[in-house]
Amino acid sequence: NQGRWDAAEELEVQVMETSKKKLGADHPSTLTSMANLAFTWKAQGRSAEAVVLIRQCVQQRQRVLKASHPDLKSSLAALENWEAE
């Protein structure tokens, strides 16, 4: 249902922006909200935008998380899969 994806996107943008302001751009919670928005964009068919955002998320997660962290692994896997499409 596109209406639900639109509502989800609106909330995720708000959460991400608030998290950036309150916690900082590299905070794990901010990066989780960024990844969530990328997955929503992908589900909406906005693949190019999703790839750009998940790539940014991966780059930031690589700076702040260990290579073995599951959040980093998940983002990397998504990026690889989406770029291969």
What does this protein structure show overall?
The chain has 85 residues and is mainly α. The chain has helices spanning 2-23, 28-43, 47-64, 70-84. The chain has one domain (2-84): Tetratricopeptide repeat domain (Serine Threonine Protein Phosphatase 5, Tetratricopeptide repeat, Alpha Horseshoe), CATH 1.25.40. Helix 1 packs antiparallel against helix 2 (28-43).
Beta-strand percent range: under 5%
Residue stretches low in confidence (pLDDT < 50, at least 5 long) are none
Tell me the helix content: over 70%
- What is the N-to-C succession of helices and strands? HHHH
Find the CATH topology. Serine Threonine Protein Phosphatase 5, Tetratricopeptide repeat
Radius of gyration: 12 Å
CATH architecture: Alpha Horseshoe
The first-level CATH class name: Mainly Alpha
Q: Kindly report the name of the CATH homologous superfamily.
A: Tetratricopeptide repeat domain
First-to-last CA distance: 23 Å
Structural class by sheet pairing and helices: mainly alpha
Mean of residue pLDDT values: 96
- Which word captures the global form? flat
Structural domain count? 1
Main sheet specs: none
Number of strands: 0
Please report the number of helical segments: 4
Pfam families: TPR_10
Protein name: Kinesin light chain
Organism: Setomelanomma holmii
